[in-house]
């Protein structure tokens, strides 16, 4: 299996973002996803900056994929998707069907991101006809669904695309046209002041009785726990998983990458450093207590 660094989900200052990705040139990740997937108002890096960074990472030997927004609401946002798709060199991760259509119209291969709704082999087949080369299932899709999908494709003598699974990070659960961070701070979305830049790992959300519950990240809601799928390595391999996705976090991402790099070379899976993903076993995502994280 290969390791990938998923797109940055949080809003970081420009120099911090550039320094992070320049540091990752020396990490043991094979694939790096670049681009804004959450909020189009986050513009510390423009499209040209992401493309320049892609060239830099490709020069360091990384496979680079450009990621699109998960929720496209304006023609200007669609224009960014077109520019990313027409870069002439790098694959696009399509996180919205408009991005799929953009690639299909141009005869371009693409990665199907986790926010596309792919729940059966018919949908997967249609998207492969449109140019899907790699599929990243949604976080709630577990072992049984993947096994059923592979069996259904095999029954029709169809090949599976590359399969990439979230292996480390908070689970992205939902997106909305409303901004949860602005609402939590009691400010209008149109006057948010980009306050989410103050929360490099998202804004923790608790229940009324003070119990940790979710993480707020702009228009995205995430799980509270940082999921670690390393102990399920052999199960993922049996399901045909080709790539393990690590989502960037504010601190110690390099240590997380090293943890998974060693895991892939160990005869036995390592102890769990994060939380269990209950979805993998067909249970609620928050199915067990979190362990200490890196």
Write the layout of secondary structure elements.
Elements: E1 2-5, H1 14-23, E2 31-34, H2 47-59, E3 63-67, H3 75-85, E4 91-94, H4 97-106, E5 110-112, H5 121-130, E6 132-135, H6 143-155, E7 162-175, H7 180-184, E8 203-206, E9 212-217, E10 220-228, H8 233-238, E11 243-246, H9 253-264
Parallel strand pairs: 1-2, 1-11, 2-3, 3-4, 4-5, 5-6, 6-7, 7-11
Antiparallel strand pairs: 7-10, 8-9, 9-10
Task: Give an overview in words.
The chain has 294 residues and is an alpha/beta fold. Helix content is 31%, strand content 21%. The protein contains nine helices and eleven strands. It has helices spanning 14-23, 47-59, 75-85, 97-106, 121-130, 143-155, 180-184, 233-238, 253-264, and strands at 2-5, 31-34, 63-67, 91-94, 110-112, 132-135, 162-175, 203-206, 212-217, 220-228, 243-246. It has an eight-stranded parallel β-barrel, surrounded by four helices. Strand 2, helix 2 and strand 3 form a beta-alpha-beta unit. Helix 3 packs across helix 4. The radius of gyration is 18 Å and the shape is globular. Mean pLDDT is 93; it is low at 288-293.
Mean pLDDT: 93
**Category by helix and strand content:** alpha/beta
Question: What is the rounded distance between the termini?
Answer: 22 Å
Low-confidence stretches: 288-293
Largest sheet: 8 strands, parallel, barrel
User: Considering DSSP H and I runs of 4 or more, what fraction of the residues is helical?
Assistant: 25-40%
Shape: globular
**Cα gyration radius (Å):** 18 Å
Strand content: 15-25%
Q: Tell me how many strands there are.
A: 11
The largest sheet has its strands arranged as: 1-2-3-4-5-6-7-11
- Please write the string of helix (H) and strand (E) elements: EHEHEHEHEHEHEHEEEHEH
Distinct helical segment count: 9
